Structures are given as C-alpha cells and as structure tokens.
Amino acid sequence: MLVRATTTAPIDTAADTVAIGVFDGKRVAHDVEGGALQRLLDSGEAQTSFRHLAQTHAAGKRWILVGLGDRDRFDAERARVAAATVYARCRDLGTTVLCWELPHRLDDDQAGGFVEGTVLASYRFTAFKSGAKDDAAAPAELLVSDHESRVVTVDRAAVVARAQNATRELQDRPANDLTPTALAEFALTLADAHDHITARVEGRAEIVARGMGAFAAVAQGTDVEPALIVLRYEPPDATGPLLGFVGKAVTHDTGGLSIKPAGSMHRMKFDMSGGGAVLGAMQAIAALALPVRIVAVVGSTENTINGSAVKPGDIVRAMNGLTIEVDNTDAEGRLVLGDCLTHAIELGAERLVDVATLTGGVVTALGSTYAGVFANDERWFDVVQAAGARSGERLWRLPLDPEYADRVKGRYADLTNSPEDKKAHPISGAEFLHRFAGDDVPWAHLDIAGVGYDLGKPWAPKGGSGFGVRLLVALAQAHAAA
Ligand code: BES
Ligand code: MN
Ligand code: ZN
C-alpha cells in the first residue's frame, strides 16, 4: 500500500473514502455539504465511543466516522487500533484510496499510529494460498491529511510498519520454507539493499569451529544447516556506543528428545520471532538512515530429533568456556543465545539487548500485553523500558537475583539449562543468559514468548506480530538523538 502525507483537505484529494475520528464531547471539525457529518453524530448513528463506526456519502465520497473516545485516554496504540478498525471496514467497502483526516493537535507518535495501524492491518500472509494472489479488495493507497506537514512522521511510520510486516512474514512462513538458510538470505538481501550494512553468514562447520558448543548441541539434532547471522550497520555519521542486538531464531522447536506435546507444536514455527524482530529492526533502521552503530547476531537452527540429537544429561562446552548439562533439550533457546551473546561481546557490543521467545512461563505471567524484561544495569533498563513505552511495545520487569542465579548451577557441570523443579522458568532462563552477558556490558533480555504471535489486536489478530521491531527502532532512535 502506498502511503503519503498531504496538507490538502480530504475533500479535495482523490480519495474515495475519508476517515474522520471524533473524540468524546467534540464536534466534527471540517464538515461537508452543510453539516452532513455532524448530523450523523447528532442522530446517534455515529458515536464517539472508542472504535464505533458509521458511514455516509457526501460530496462524491464515502465518509467514515470513527469514535476515538476520551481525548485524555487517547494514545498511539488507540490510533493504531482505530486505524485498523477503519481499514477492515474499507476492505469490506472496496475502498481504493483512503484518506485519514488527522484530528487536531496530535503528537508525532499518535499521528504515526494511524499510519502504523493501517499498514499493519493491511498485512496478509498469502504465499501458500492458491488462487488470486493480488489482494483485489485491499485499498491501494493511504493519504494522511493534516493542516501541518506530517511528511517526516508519516514516512517514518510507514517504513517501520512495513519492516514490522516483513518480520511477520518471516514468522508466518513455515519451518520447511523458512529454514535458517532462508532467514540468512533475508539478512544478505538487506545487506545488498543498504550501503552501510554488511552481513556474514556461517554454518555448522564454523559454529563448531568457533567453539559454540551450546549452539552446536541444539543444531546437532537436525540435518538442516544452522546459521549464525551477523549484520553490521555502520553509517559514516554514526556516533555513540556500538549497540548489540541478539535474537533467538529457532525456526522450529519440537522440544528435541524432551519432546513437546503435539497439541500446539505447530506454533513453534514462531520460535524464530526474536531473530526475526532483530532483522526487521535492522531493515527499518537502515531505511531511516539512523546515525547509530549496530551489530546484530542472530542464532538460527531447528530444534528437532535426528539420530544424533543432544540427549538429556549430555554435557557441552559453550564458547565462553562454561560447561552446561543439557537436562532438558526443550530449554534450547538459552543454549543458542548464550553463545550468541558471547559472540556479540567479542564483536565489540557495548550495549546488549536480546530478544527471544524463551519461556512458556512468561506467557502465563504476562499474557499478550507485556513482554518480560530483565536487565543487569539500571540505566540501560531505563533506556530499554522507555523505548518500549515510546513504541507501544510494553515491557514488565522481572528480577535477577543471586538466589535465582544459584538455581542454574549444574550438578555435574558449571550450569544446567533447566533446574529440576518447575519454578520461575522465565527467571532461570534470564539468569542462565546472565552468565553469558556478564556484568561488564549493560544487557537487557526480552522474553517475547507471549507477545510474539497471536496478539489478538485489531492490527495483528493472529500469526506473527512483529513484536520488537518498533521497540528496537525506538532504541536506536534514542541513541541517534543523544
Ligand atoms: N520456545 C519455547 C518457549 C515458548 C513456549 C515460546 C510457549 C512460545 C510459547 C522454549 O524453547 C521452551 O520450550 N521453553 C521451556 C523451558 C523449560 C523446559 C525450562 C518452557 O518454557 O517450558
Ligand atoms: Mn524449547
Ligand atoms: Zn524454543
């Protein structure tokens, strides 16, 4: 979908459909045909309660009035939801060009929210559907009309939402299509498309040769080639610390020999969501040409069972020298990520954030509303938390504590990847990773198992959500501004 900001009044644009939001207690700001829209509101057919829709025809166009609710409760997320609601109606109506008339006095994030909500709602995963591929019912163009020029905000929001959709496509692709090699191809394509990105992809032999024994242990259970994907983004004008983005990209997690129940195993194609978010964020950051330096490390493999799969009780040695008892082969994400964190530090990362669908426990604790966040540094936590709040991808902090750290000590080796009792899984996972991140580099771990897919939001009801893309872009933006 084309997206364009304009200062032309909606009535004078080529749009066939105009969307207008109205807050509680407010009137229609710019009416048509002597008050047709206000009359719709006065009659009660249109209402200002949040997400309420009504429509009419006037001046040769279709007009959709959408309730925006309480002005004081309005935020960027409500803008995304309102926009997605309108978009769904537009699809039903056969809209070709939609023009949003922005309410007065929005901040940039709220204005951008209307664009994000529309572009995100337009996402469909149709790669494997036979028949009409080109989505004939979908609006082809979005115009965003305001008195002041919103070009920068609108363009930025479109770039970020498209990158988020690219991540969602990676997520939705099944594991027999999106192999680690296919994910690596996405990274290589990014590097081809952007002057200041370089990519390096290594396979099983290099992962083993580097001494990444934890990552290699997961990958030894599949004949599918794993991939260690490293992207560097270094534009000439960049300043500030080297940011390290680390992502878990398990393209399918069967659990390995500690096998998962069959009922929901198909959803484990989404276990690459963290790595997918890192790649989507790199796409957006490069497209926006943000003056920051980033090294991204994405560890990708299947977690399946061939004849040489790692067995519960096996002991492996990670790249940082620590030995690990693999007591549960389903706690594979921390094995992959541990070595990737070590690698990111070796590559010079000065601030770390890892993104992973790490534990079912975080789904139980926080559902699809907040991602869990852990951090070894208060100031870095504040920065990451602020990026979450700014982007609408919200984070709830869970504790690190020496008492929890004791629980990941191994009986026969330095560490166990899975303490015997069923307590505090998200924290055990984080404390395990903590042993790789250390305390010298500020580090935050985002457990996105609950927010990575099937969000149930109007702009992302089912399938991959692209969670993490907007947050990582906001994090980069915060460093670009500093
Ligand atoms: N990929 C899963 C976590 C997950 C669960 C993601 C549900 C999305 C939805 C991860 O590899 C896993 O299996 N974690 C185990 C760890 C346990 C064995 C210590 C878990 O959380 O049950
Ligand atoms: Mn697992
Ligand atoms: Zn997993």
From TrEMBL:
One of its GO terms (molecular function) is metalloaminopeptidase activity. Mn(2+) 1 binds at residues 253, 330, 332. Its main location: cytoplasm. Residues 328-335 form the Cytosol aminopeptidase domain. The active site is at 260, 334. One of its GO terms (cellular component) is cytoplasm. Belongs to the peptidase M17 family. Presumably involved in the processing and regular turnover of intracellular proteins. Catalyzes the removal of unsubstituted N-terminal amino acids from various peptides. This is Probable cytosol aminopeptidase. The lineage of its organism: Bacteria, Bacillati, Actinomycetota, Thermoleophilia, Solirubrobacterales. The gene is pepA.
